[in-house]
Amino acid sequence: MIEIDKVTKTFGAGDAAFTALRDVSVTIRENEFFTLLGPSGCGKTTLLRLIAGFEPPTIGAIRLSGRDITRLPPNQRPVNTVFQNYALFPHMSVAGNIAFGLEMLGKPKDEIAKTVDEMLRLVRMEELKHRKTSEISGGQQQRVALARALAPHPEVLLLDEPLSALDLKLRKEMQIELKRLQSETGITFVFVTHDQEEALTMSDRIAVMSGGRILQIGNPREIYERPSERFVANFIGESNFLNGQLSAGSVTLEAGGTFTVEPPQGVADGKVSVLIRPEHVTLAGTGTKGAALTATVENVVYSGEATVAHLKLTTGEAIKARASNQPGAGGALEIGAQVGLSVAPGAVTVLVD
Amino acid sequence: MSEQATYRPGELEAEAQAADNRNRWILALPAVVIITLAAAGPLLVMVVYSFLTPGDYGNVVWKFSLEGWMNTLVQRDIFDDTLIWADAHLSIFWRSFSLSLITTVLTLIFGVPTAWFIATRPPGKREFWLFLITVPFWTNLLVRTIAIQELLRSEGVINLILLKLGIIDAPIQMMFTNFAIGFGMTYVYLPLMVLPVYAAVDKLDFRLVEAAHDLYAGRWTAFRRVILPLIKPGIIAGSILVFIPSLGAYVTPRVLGGGKNLMFGNLIELQFGQGRNWPLGAALSLMLMAAVMIALMWYVRVTSREQSDG
């Protein structure tokens, strides 16, 4: 268990000072796949580097399994890192890289050899054991970096955007691979990414960060379906933001329609912003029963498995509707046509603005 | 049209290739001429001279002789004409070799931390420090060496300070010793160590150092296991750049070592000057060159092995 306790990190001093983390507190549980998600410059990598010990926090404490490790140098923390560009030692072979941490821990030779083979098997790289790290592909380097960091069996594995340099297909494979490794080894993974889809697919819990703060922590479903604020909703998935009036547990949209909602704490009755995901908006003929809203089709974008209709509501607000494509269907929507929209029950989320 | 139709495949490429080769030769011509005239030619003269007989007033007599080469290592006893080791030469070889080695080690000890310091400054400030390293090159070597003399001599700065502080009662004799030569050469050749090591440290990926710390390596182990192997090419290049000119150093041993502590370069000069034994001088020069070549071949072997296994 890692406890980040009110951590602030400031780089530089005076006018050049830059605060990368502001009063961040989070508890990462044992055996958890925990993701720090946010745009570049949000402080997620800084937080990871603080946990690794490469930088000390300016204020606050970091505890690992109850022990204060705030001032401990990286070589004394039972934490290993998979670096963004892997940082494999170019003067060592694949096996030499994997053995390095074990050698530093002073493990006996035969045990090191055994663990190295085990790790190579775990990441499916047995046949490349004696290769130089410059002679293997990016995906293979990625696996070696993973094996190297896992070999000393750390309490926590830190992963700094490890998949960002891989192409899409390989990235998808590695996502599954990482999940498998995490469940096989039982090690806590702290994963840094700016890719929301990656975060949703892999994580047990996600912390969404922006401007050095954690905005929301929750499991992927909570983060996607019940984002606490506009930034989180906007950063993760596609969103429609509409204005409405909240009163007594239901929202009446300015564009029409009343929906039962569970307003988050601290939101008073009155004018609010709500989120509706495009896939929860369904097109229907005008005047159809249950169609709460009326809109004009502005654009239709076909993207293979789905079609997204860009529409304009009677209030002038923009809204997107996304529908999976069915075989044989299609081409019915005309630009400029008037359509009815229905919104799935429970799809309206009130945001803290 | 008909001409184009008769073109055989590959002909255009072959022609372009030939033109390209021609251009390269034309571009290389000035270099080839200079190297032939200024380097290979004199070298050939040296080889020829080393096998001739010395003239009475310098120069050579066109008569084949192995004396020049023999005299590098042995000499005839003036009384019974037996061959004995040329002790004077051997002690000069040894002094040259050991002082060059000591100089290399000292420049390493002072140069590597200096290079490290410069390479780890913020990018904008490195130029300033590199500039300071190159400043001595602006002044003539002889002038700089005489400045060192000013530091080391009996009434020099160092002795004066030590006397005033009461650390010593009488001036220490530093001039005209091996110490003075080593001191001077370390000073003169230090930039030649700092610059290649700086280039190597500058290229070093510091994330690798972080990775080493992350994998439980302490500072010293990280240096020995990760940093040192990665900056080794720079260290070897610097060592060679220092060792080779040290071996043939002339001005520094002459000024700081006085007439007594000769080094290889002075010995060669002596043969062409007062010694009037040009074949011996030529043979000694070629010996020095051979030593340098051996050092370079060792460098090439070490670095290429580095690249093939690692």
Automatic annotation (TrEMBL), chain A:
UniProt entry tagged with the keyword Methyltransferase: no
EC number: 7.6.2.11
EC top class, as a word: translocase
Pfam families in the cross-refs: ABC_tran (PF00005), TOBE_2 (PF08402)
Translocase found in the keyword field: yes
Domain ABC transporter: from-to ranges: 2-236
SUPFAM superfamilies: MOP-like, P-loop containing nucleoside triphosphate hydrolases
Reaction catalysis annotation: ATP + H2O + polyamine-[polyamine-binding protein]Side 1 = ADP + phosphate + polyamineSide 2 + [polyamine-binding protein]Side 1
Stored CDD domains: ABC_PotA_N
InterPro entries, per database record: AAA+_ATPase, ABC_SmlMolc_Importer, ABC_transporter-like_ATP-bd, ABC_transporter-like_CS, Mo/tungstate-bd_C_term_dom, P-loop_NTPase, PotA-like, PotA_ATP-bd
Key words, A-Z: ATP-binding, Cell membrane, Membrane, Nucleotide-binding, Translocase, Transport
PROSITE patterns: ABC_TRANSPORTER_1, ABC_TRANSPORTER_2
Top-rank taxon: Bacteria
One Gene Ontology term of the molecular function aspect: ATP binding
Family stated for the protein in its record: Belongs to the ABC transporter superfamily. Spermidine/putrescine importer (TC 3.A.1.11.1) family.
Function description: Part of the ABC transporter complex PotABCD involved in spermidine/putrescine import. Responsible for energy coupling to the transport system.
Subunit structure: The complex is composed of two ATP-binding proteins (PotA), two transmembrane proteins (PotB and PotC) and a solute-binding protein (PotD).
Name of the protein: Spermidine/putrescine import ATP-binding protein PotA
TrEMBL record, chain B:
Topology within the bilayer: Multi-pass membrane protein
InterPro entries: MetI-like (IPR000515), MetI-like_sf (IPR035906)
Transmembrane segments: 25-52, 92-116, 128-147, 179-201, 222-244, 280-300
Record Pfam families: BPD_transp_1
Subcellular location: Cell membrane
Keyword set includes DNA damage: no
Gene3D superfamilies attached to this UniProt entry: MetI-like (1.10.3720.10)
Domain spans labelled ABC transmembrane type-1: 93-299
Keywords: Cell membrane, Membrane, Transmembrane, Transmembrane helix, Transport
Protein origin, superkingdom: Bacteria
PANTHER family, sorted: INNER MEMBRANE ABC TRANSPORTER PERMEASE PROTEIN YDCU-RELATED, INNER MEMBRANE ABC TRANSPORTER PERMEASE PROTEIN YDCU-RELATED-RELATED
Family per record: Belongs to the binding-protein-dependent transport system permease family. CysTW subfamily.
Protein known as: ABC transporter permease
Organism: Ruegeria aquimaris
